[in-house]
Amino acid sequence: MNFLDGHLFPENQEPLVITAAPYGPEWIPSDFPEDIPVSMEAQVRKAVDCYEAGARVLHVHVRELDGRGSKRLSKFNELLAGIRQACPEMILQVGGSISFAPEGEGANAKWLSDDTRHMLAELDPKPDQVTVTVNTTQMNVLEHMETADIAGTSLGTPEGIRAYSEMVVPSTPSFVEEHIRRLSARGIQSAFQFYNLNSFETVERLIRRGVYKGPLVLNWVAISGGMDAPNIYNLANFVRALPDGAMVTVESSMRNVLPINMMGMAMGLHVRCGIEDNIWNQARTQKMSTVEQIRQLVRIAGEFGRPIATAQQAREILKIGVFYDTVEETLLANGFAPNARGRQQGFLRKAA
């Protein structure tokens, strides 16, 4: 991406799109009973509250009545239908993991099979986006957390530490290509989760080969443990490699969330918050609900002079429902250099 003179001025930036992640499948209700919805009615209400606070994208997981993260597609269908009715303007982004919460006591937190995740393309009503992970990697979500971050929670137990420190994201080439094809066929946008430069480079190659023909909408996931660490060097190195047409949301965990969001906000990027990422204020003196985190970002964006995107603006910024007919059109729309004739990979200069 190019950052020219004036890029830090709000009049030269897009309105801010806030993604809310309020369902937090890694937690159990007793970890934060004031802000973890369990009944279907409460989960729908949480989506409405997030929208009214200023979020325009909702990262969706769903819970069973016993409070555990659900792995049933029927429950996702029920929640999506409820949110569509109660909050029709919210952009719905289903988490591609479905739920990585352990299925029982002593079980590891793990992602479901390729076949099960492919079924996300069949959800009804269909979501606007499904998150797509790229390249198999370790996902030790606890690696950069401090002991005090998880003290007194289910993550702080020996079972929780074992379950979540050993988690792996399975995302092989055959899975990614088939998943993208199925989502695109249903008109569902692939919201890419990039952990570092190599995952972005893999998607660029998929675009150049014609596997994906849509907007490059992505999260930079800086949670360590196999993914980028949350610091300015990693962020700068990452965005420098991206084409100018990319829509970038920054994401981190625990008390790194707010400073990373402030960096992203200042640079004209977009932000994500919610209890799936963090449950604390910056002093770690009390827990913060997802709605409180959204309101905090709205307030800070106001200080920056950067307006919050309306629902329609958010859909236009994310290019929801947009797909392209050819490789050449996809490369051009996203700001990539064209493919070199007779070669799969591009070259360093754009065409005149």
From TrEMBL:
<dbReference type="InterPro" id="IPR013785">
    <property type="entry name" value="Aldolase_TIM"/>
</dbReference>
<dbReference type="InterPro" id="IPR008567">
    <property type="entry name" value="BKACE"/>
</dbReference>
<keyword id="KW-0862">Zinc</keyword>
<keyword id="KW-0479">Metal-binding</keyword>
<keyword id="KW-0808">Transferase</keyword>
<protein>
    <submittedName>
        <fullName>3-keto-5-aminohexanoate cleavage protein</fullName>
    </submittedName>
</protein>
<dbReference type="Pfam" id="PF05853">
    <property type="entry name" value="BKACE"/>
</dbReference>
